[in-house]
Amino acid sequence: MTGSVVIPVTALVISAISLGAAAGVLVWGFQEGNLSGPLDFDAATVAGVDALVLTLVLTFGFGLAMDYEMFLLARIKEHHDRGESTRLAIETGLQSSGRIITSAALIIVLVFAGFATGELMQMKQIGTALAVAVLLDATLVRVILVPAVLTSLERTLWWAPRWTAPLHARFGLSE
To answer: Which long-range contacts (CB under 8 A, 24 or more apart) does 103-106 make?
Structure first.
């Protein structure tokens, strides 16, 4: 999409933050039993975090994080392609997509919070972890961390090896 090598690498690294937090909430809340009161379950009956739950949380969480990332990066690239400086493109891209990302995340967080109120333990775990992942990703990560990292990398943000330019042009990805 961007022709850059730096942008996808930063997207992958930054996405690990909200996914790590979701996994941490699973361990802290369910394996350690700290959410047994608010989520109404017996901590003694939880034998840990199920591998399927962790797999689903990481898979869906990564997908949602990349969705928000691509939406934000598409707006930044549009502004950059219009001739705005990288710093200004980051600012205007965030301004033009921030409300949409926040609104979509709020709806998804409410849906996942609904899963967390169910009776099935796996659904409680999935709902709680994904609600935390989306909430962190749409607020702290996309609003603060991504713009800060992209701004700090503004000189190298659009860099790619020369050999990738023909590939980027061949598949009609460049303008």
So the answer is: 104/68, 104/138, 105/68, 105/134, 105/135, 105/137, 105/138, 105/139, 106/138
Answer yes or no: are the C-beta atoms of 22 and 133 closer than 8 Å: yes
Domain of 26 in residue numbering reads as 6-156
**172 lies in some domain:** no
Q: What is the mean pLDDT of each run of 10 residues along the chain (175 residues)?
A: 85 92 95 93 89 95 92 92 94 92 94 94 96 93 92 89 76 56
Closest by CA to 26, choosing from 5, 52, 2, is 52
Closest C-alpha among 91, 87, 86, 94 to residue 69: 94
138 and 102 Cβ atoms separated by less than 8 Å: yes
Question: Residues 6 or more apart from 78 whose CB is under 8 A from it?
Answer: 93
User: What global pTM score does this model have?
Assistant: 0.86
Domain membership flag for residue 120: yes
How far, in Å, CA of 126 to CA of 48, rounded? 13
The count of structural domains within the chain is 1
Q: Transcribe 46-82 into DSSP letters.
A: --S--HHHHHHHHHHHHHHHHHHHHHHHHHHHHHHHT
